[in-house]
Amino acid sequence: MPRLRRWFGLxxxxxxxxxxxxxxxxAPTVEPTALEPVAxxxxxxxxxxxxxxxxxxxxxxxxxxxxxxEEVKPKESEGVG
Amino acid sequence: xxxxxxxxxxxxxxDFMTSTHGQAKCVDCHGGQLAEDKDTAHTGMIPDPSxxxxxxxxxxxxxxxxxxxxxxxxxxxxxKTIIYSRTVPENHPAIEEAFANxxxxxxTTCGDCHISQPDSVGGGLLTGHLFEKTPPMTRTCTxxxxxxxxxxxxxxxxxxPGDVHFRQGRMNCVSCHTGASLHNSDEQSAGHRxxxxxxxxxxxCHSKVGASSDPIPQHVLHGEKLACQVCHSVxxxxxxxxxVAVSEDTGNPFFKTEGTYxxxxxxxxxxxxxxxxxxxxxxxxVPISPTNFEFYGENLLPNFDLLPTWAxxxxxxxxxxxxxxxxxxxxxxxxxxxxxxxxxKPEELNANAPVIVDEVPPAxxxx
Lengths: 81, 367
Hints:
The complex is a heterodimer.
Chain A: H1 2-20, H2 52-57, H3 60-66
Chain B: H1 6-10, H2 26-30, H3 38-42, H4 62-65, H5 72-75, H6 77-85, H7 92-102, H8 110-114, H9 141-144, H10 146-154, H11 164-167, H12 179-183, H13 217-222, H14 228-232, E1 236-246, E2 253-263, E3 265-268, E4 280-285, E5 310-313
Antiparallel strand pairs in B: 1-2, 3-4, 4-5
C-alpha cells in the first residue's frame, strides 16, 4: 500500500508539472481594418493681439515721424516764477 | 534743463515691458485702444492715469497712497491757506478762478514724480516709462522748486555757494525730505508746510547741537532763540509782486513779477509754536501784493495786512561758516542784516509789524 501511495503522489506531481508547462493561450489578435479617409478640419489657433502701443512707442524712428510739432507758445510771462 | 524733443517725451524703454508695471497692457491704465492708427489709438486715452491714484497706484501701493490727497503736493493747500487768509468769502469765486488758471498746475500726481517730468518744464517720460522710486532731483524736485530752493541748494546764484549738504554731502532732496513726508501730511502740516512738526529738523541728524556736550558754545548760548538758518544761511532769493492775468491775444494765463533779488535778513518769528520756538528767524519777501489778482476783480485781498510780506523762510543754502557767524558782533549790533523798518516798503509796514526788528541785539563788549 505504501508503494501504491508513492506512485499515486508521483503521478499527481507529474500531472501538476504538465499543467504548468502548457504553453500560454495565444493572445487574441485584432485584424487591422482599413480606415476611412477623414478630411482634415481647420484647427483654431490663438494669436496674441498685436500690442500696437508698444510697437509704436518703442520705435524711435516711428515716433519721430508721427510726433505732432509742438506749438511754440509766446512767452508772455515776465520774471521769475 | 533743456526740454525734451516731442519723440523723447513718449519713447518707452523696452526694459519697461519686463518690469512689474510693464506686465499690464498699456490700455489697462491709459485707456485708448489698440489700433495701428495713432489718432484712433489715442482716442479716449488718459495721459496720466495716476491722477486717479485711488483707482490705480493705490491698488498695490496702499501705504504710499493712504492720505496722499492730503499731502501738500496733491492738495496745494499751503497756497490756499495763505491766500484765503488775506481775503473774505465773497471773493472766493474770483480767487478760485485765479487759482485754477495760475496756481493749480503745481498739483502733483504720482506719475508727475515717479514717471515723468513736471509739465512746468515740458513734461515727458523720465526714463522711458520705467518707474523711478527715487526720481532724479533736478528733473523733478528742482524742476518745480527751482527759482528759490533749487537755485539756492545747487549754488546757481553768482558768488553764492550752494548748500553744503549738496556740495560736500552729495545729498539729494529725499535725503532729508523722505518719501513718507512727501506722500502724506499730518493734520497740522496739511494746511501749510510750516504749521506742523519740522520735517525735517536739523537736529534729526545734528542731534548734539545745543546739548551740554556741544563743543560750540554759541549753540548752547543761543539755545532755541535762533533758527539754525540765522547763523548758517547766506543770501537767498526774495521776490516782489506777482501779478497774474489771462492774455487777450492768446487766451493763455501769464504772470509778471515786479522783481527778484537776493537778501539776507533776520527778523522776528511770525510762526512761533512748539515746533518752531525761535525768537529770530530768516525771512524772505514773497511776491504778494494787494493787486496780485486785480485781473479777476477789485480789492480781492482786503485783509492783506493780516500776514507779513516778509515770510518765515528756510533757505536751502546752509554753510558752516557765514558772514554773520564769524564773531558775535558780526551779528550783534549789526543792523544791516536785521529786517528793520527802514528796509520795508511804507505800504507794507503794517503787514510786517510782527516781524520787524525794532531793537537790534546790542553789540557784545570785547567781541
